[in-house]
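protien #1 (seq + structre)
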Amino acid sequence: MSVTTVRLQAEVEQHLEAIASRLHRSKGWVINQALSEYIEKQQREQERWQQTLEAMESAAQGKVVDASEVHGWLNSWGTENEQDAPRSGK
């Protein structure tokens, strides 16, 4: 495990100490947890952005599904005749 020095604003330090005390954990543990969650969130956002770009490119290429097909598929959810997801014609 490596060591990193961070300068915190006084108010942030106070909140950090209160959280660590309430959880009976070290400030380092709280910081590590918070950074891990932040990194995971950033990775999810990056993945969603990439998926959005890919979807936009597909739409620009005409790879789309008619809305009525999508609605029919969604309406079939939970029924005996549940349909497979519609696919684009391309």
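ok now protien #2
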Amino acid sequence: MKKTLAALVAVTTIAGSLAVAPAAKAGDGGAVAAGVAGGLIGGALLGGAIAGARPAPVYVAPAPVYVEEAPCRWVRERFWDGYGWRFRRVQVCD
């Protein structure tokens, strides 16, 4: 219903401005410019009112995802072999 009413107001505004426009003459002393400015301001106000009628977007957080870790993992371990430090991979299970 709101969209229909907004469309009706917009059509009425445009029809009214077209009906008044031919009555203006070139020597009106700025009346045409005032009419154009008034039409632009009125259109901005009407457009703002129509745009403000929509509800704001709603953010919905995604559901949490739980990942079960593997019971064992590989770890680098440093060890002394009698000649120097070396590395080896060792499986550690919790």
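The longest strand covers residues 72-80.
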